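TL;DR need structure tokens for one chain.
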Amino acid sequence: MLSISFGKLSNVVLFVAAIGYTCASSAHDAGATMDPNGTVAGFTGFALVTCTNSGSIPTSFLEASITDTSLPQDNLLVNLQIIHIGNNFNHAISTTDPISGDAEPSPSVRVAGGNGNYLLLVNKTAAGARSFTVSYHCKAADGVTHTDTDILVYQFE
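>> reply
TL;DR here they are.
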């Protein structure tokens, strides 16, 4: 039982450390390994991304993609979902890295919920360890200007 708890804790620590490192840089990329033992088909990561004004420039949308950085494996893909509830705009969207382990990202998706909180979920299609990177950006209406972005991981198991 202790090794399971330690394993979950170490995964969360690695994911949070990756996010903390990337939040300090100009890009917003975070990565980790889902299900390092390869036994949990329903492995899910859940984070809250908060988008706010950058000075006087408000956020228009959150844009994100996911990249499978593992070795190729048939029928094992990584997925990303963005969910926004609030500001009179409730919407969800998802994307999947269509080729396992090719190191190319999924198509980018965006949810235009303005300033506020967005749920970011990552999961995979079957049992097996999958390393991944998520690229996420709060952006202004011009589609270029990055607005302030914070992330907090709630679950990685």
